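pinging the channel bc i need a second pair of eyes. not urgent but kinda urgent?? the chain im working w is below, pasted from the shared doc
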Amino acid sequence: MDLGIAGKWALVCGASKGLGFGCAEALVREGVNVLLVARGAAVLQASASKLIAEYAGNTGATVQFVAEDITTPQGRQAVFAARSDFDIVVTNAGGPPTGDFRDWDRDAWIRAVDANMLTPIELIKATVDGMAARGFGRIVNITSGAVKAPIDILGLSNGARSGLTGFVAGVARSPLAAHGVTINNLLPGAFDTDRLRGVMQGAAQKTSQALDVVMAARRNTIPARRFGTVEEFGAICAFLCSQQAGYINGQNVLADGGAYPGTF
């Protein structure tokens, strides 16, 4: 299927590895020009070089990168100095640390909200009016399956990402929708990433079990009996950014191998 987005410009955050890289890779394969953002310059440059070498020559896509912390005003300023207009924005920030809510002070909560709620809102605010003026826009916020099924050790993430979910539910249904702009949240379950391993390591320490035991137990709770791959996550993201997905708006798309037990 031709997704109809070749030649569009996308901003992909947290794009040096993991789910963010998977989204960037899927978009570049579709001929989308991509600006990658992440904090680690060396890894980010290597990821950009990989995309250029493997795909850009065949698709004609331009791949650029900015090594900045998108969760800071200075980082966002640097990104928009490199390019001001985007047709597609994929927001993504590393999840807050795991732990016991009794140990989190106000500063910990502010950091979580800044990264996982306020930063996506700032990126939406900076780009949606231009999208509406051009008649096309796709914003995909990578949040978490924990928004639907909270996990006790992910309290910081549960709270901050749920706040973003509520915000998107309102703004996605504003007059922007009539101008071809969609805003959706993509909720990953257990995908094979460094983040998953970090969460499982926290669970292992909490329960005094070996990491492999905790990983196997987690895998067995998933009807698919496996962890997701970044490639299939990226494909879902790319479809949500497509011309064909123009009637999908304000939704929370859960990708978790069937793990969530609810009907809604």
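so The first helix runs from residue 18 to 29. and The radius of gyration is 18 Å. — does that match what u expected or am i reading it wrong
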